[in-house]
């Protein structure tokens, strides 16, 4: 015989499905709330009924004390079982269904009582508070048992205290009212519990549909996997709700956009400010693989609506790719320039060889001097006016490229730029982009010329780049600094329209501005003002001596002078 399989142990616990767990928890909560509400209702109900009984007893006592026959009988008659005070008090007691009405004089002697033999005897409780003119409400034990009691002073026609009136209501009647109210209360609680259970079932069914009948452990695992995926991918993810507010940001989106958790719950307009990035995230600009610039980063954005009315936007960092693309463009330009220069160099070498073969040595020396001198003069002119080595090197290189492209690149006579810029790399980016755009604009035109002017005004640097190209139409000058705007064909590696946008962003980041107008004689003139491009001057630590002449500043040789030496 095969061995019997071991009996399965019965495991008790919560059901696994989210629907069953939610239903069980909500029914339990509804039952607990019903029991708690019942207890909270019953606890003050007893005190409330006691208070109502005492107030009723006090009201009957006040009504009895206001009867003029009661006060007059106390003053003019004796306490007897058939006296006017006893008859009037019994009449009021039967009319109000009170347990007893006791009228006493100032000595505490009863003038009325439900038991006639007690008339003429002293009361069993202390009457001093009522005889002192104060009203009393209490629950106490007397000769008739436990009762809710009210005591008031008894005044005569002259408003003098002549006695007191004590009225009692049987406490058993109050307890009976409380006990009789409990079944109805439990009936209401049961009805509320049934309604709560029905509502819990409806809510649980909705939760079941929305969670696709998954267990809480499965939902928790999915959330953990989602968090790991969102924060692990190298793409920025921004989730927006139906109101257009940011509800989720992963780590890459925080890095690319330069924002933190404070942006959650706010709209992109509030978190990022105006700009193309905000327009893409909010859906005001539609399309796929939209280029946008955020700070110094070039981003590729895509936005997809979700079923709940919100949207999810993804951001990819294209800064390095865009830099490589610009470097590729520059490299291609340099290759073309080198090809032309190689051709020109071959022509010069052929000329030099011919001069040497004809034994025209002096002419050969003069020819070589002219060729070398042209390049040296250009470098010397630039380095004399621009002391920053990065900008000087940039313009020397651009001059060579411009010459090979048939464009005259001039540095204005007004150009004067000292060394020690706060952000030389940023200014190199600005100048390089503007010069490249100007060279592209004038390429292939007659008498093509680009002029660069760099000068200082206090701590500010003013840059102007003029060209002899077709210029920028007046209706497009507001759009020229927008990401993606360009009049040129896109290159093979991607899209255009980012150079001028970067210029505008770099100028704004330093508190400056970038504008475009019309140059003298036609063409475009770009102007960039950087208010704090130069560092603050250091304070003079040694005060000048009175009457002494200031020493002449030491002369720093330029690169051209060093080369001449």
Automatic annotation (TrEMBL):
Query: Which residues are listed as membrane-spanning?
Result: 20-45, 185-203
Q: What is its EC number?
A: 2.7.13.3
Q: Which GO terms of type biological process are on file?
A: regulation of DNA-templated transcription
SUPFAM superfamilies with a match to the protein in the record: ATPase domain of HSP90 chaperone/DNA topoisomerase II/histidine kinase, PYP-like sensor domain (PAS domain), Sensory domain-like, Sporulation response regulatory protein Spo0B
Reaction equation(s) it catalyzes? ATP + protein L-histidine = ADP + protein N-phospho-L-histidine
Keywords recorded for this protein, A-Z: ATP-binding, Cell membrane, Kinase, Membrane, Nucleotide-binding, Phosphoprotein, Transferase, Transmembrane, Transmembrane helix, Two-component regulatory system
Extract the GO molecular function terms from the UniProt entry: ATP binding; phosphorelay sensor kinase activity
- Annotated Histidine kinase domain ranges read 423-534
Q: Does the keyword Nucleotide-binding apply?
A: yes
| Superkingdom of the organism of origin | Bacteria
**What is the recorded membrane topology of this protein?**
Multi-pass membrane protein
Q: Does the keyword Transferase apply?
A: yes
Q: Low complexity compositional bias: what residue ranges?
A: 542-559
Q: Which chain positions lie within coiled-coil regions?
A: none
Where does it live in the cell? Cell membrane
Into which EC class is this enzyme placed? transferase
Q: Where is this region: Disordered?
A: 531-565
The Gene Ontology CC terms held by the record are: plasma membrane
A Pfam family assignment: PAS
What name does UniProt use for this protein? histidine kinase
Q: Which organism is it from?
A: Streptomyces monashensis
